[in-house]
Design a protein that fits this description.
Number of domains: 2
Order of helices and strands: EHEHEHEEHEEEHHEHHH
Largest sheet: 9 strands, mixed
């Protein structure tokens, strides 16, 4: 069922050693507008710069809504899970510490959940600085619905602008600490969570109405090359996860075969190798966990 409009929404922002960039994000967060109950959880993921001072000053301005959390263990997924533990909202939304949400970001997210029986949502991510490389953004202007147990395309939904019902996040046990920045695979915790939600039988959607602007400050060159190679690895882990789950295996079979064939035909051997590496490494991680249990 759709989430009633009066349900509380929590926005989680995780940050680590971004004191020089954080003021712009905090300014954008201070301009959020919503008439319904809401909470802002900011997680300091073991920063060693002036981040904590900036957060303390910011929180003093609105102690009713702002909750500060400290997670000493590095890793984006660890920080997200720490924030989730303090979240009191029935809808839990996320954005990054280099993103500027539109003032109506929370209202538009709530609107999307009200209108259809979805449990997870991806939002539009626009480039803030036109001098930055147009990567890690999603400019699609039309909605895309994702039925239960479906193939979730990499890049359709970005972790810098997505949301879940608390029910969905509890069902999947939060975010996988092996993935994401600071994890063993250093990327892909957002897509992993979406695939697991789909495999739990939840419906989702991408909707362009909630908007954030991504100020990632990356230019074309070695930095982008490294980023895209990381994405290759995490994409392989995602394909393995989707294909290994009986609930989503049929949905992932053809996209997986098409991806492999496409890389071979185009001679993208480096990409193919990294994707296989990601799948293999994630399989080993899951196998090690099963042995511990």
């Amino acid at each position: 069922m759709p989430v009633p409009g009066s349900m509380k929404i929590t926005l989680i922002v995780c940050t680590r050693n971004r004191a020089s960039y954080l003021p712009a994000t905090l300014d954008a967060l201070s301009r959020l507008q919503t008439t319904e109950p809401w909470q802002l959880v900011i997680v300091n993921n073991g920063s060693s710069d002036g981040t904590q001072h900036l957060l303390d000053v910011f929180a003093e301005r609105d102690p009713e809504h702002v909750c500060l959390v400290h997670e000493a263990v590095p890793g984006l997924a660890n920080a997200q899970n720490a924030g989730l533990a303090r979240a009191s909202g029935d809808i839990v939304a996320f954005t990054d510490d280099d993103c500027y949400p539109e003032p109506d970001y929370l209202e538009r997210i709530r609107e999307c959940f009200n209108e259809s029986p979805i449990q997870y949502l991806g939002c539009r991510v626009l480039l803030y600085d036109r001098n930055d490389a147009p990567v890690t953004i999603q400019t699609r202007e039309t909605r895309a619905d994702l039925p239960p147990n479906c193939y979730v395309p990499a890049g359709l939904i970005h972790g810098s602008a997505f949301a879940f019902t608390r029910k969905a996040l509890d069902a999947i046990g939060g975010f996988d600490p092996a993935l994401g920045i600071g994890g063993l695979l250093d990327s892909g915790n957002d897509l992993n969570a979406l695939i697991r939600c789909s495999g739990q039988g939840f419906r989702g959607a991408y909707d362009p109405r909630p908007v954030v602007y991504h100020h990632h400050r990356r230019k074309w060159g070695a930095d982008i090359d490294r980023l895209l190679k990381r994405y290759d690895v995490s994409r392989g882990a995602a394909y393995f996860l989707g294909f290994s789950n009986p609930a989503t295996r049929r949905a992932y079979a053809w996209p997986l075969l098409r991806r492999i064939a496409g890389n071979i035909l185009k001679g993208h051997w480096g990409t193919l190798s990294r994707e296989f590496s990601g799948g293999y490494r994630y399989a080993l991680i899951l196998r090690a966990r099963s042995r511990v249990r």
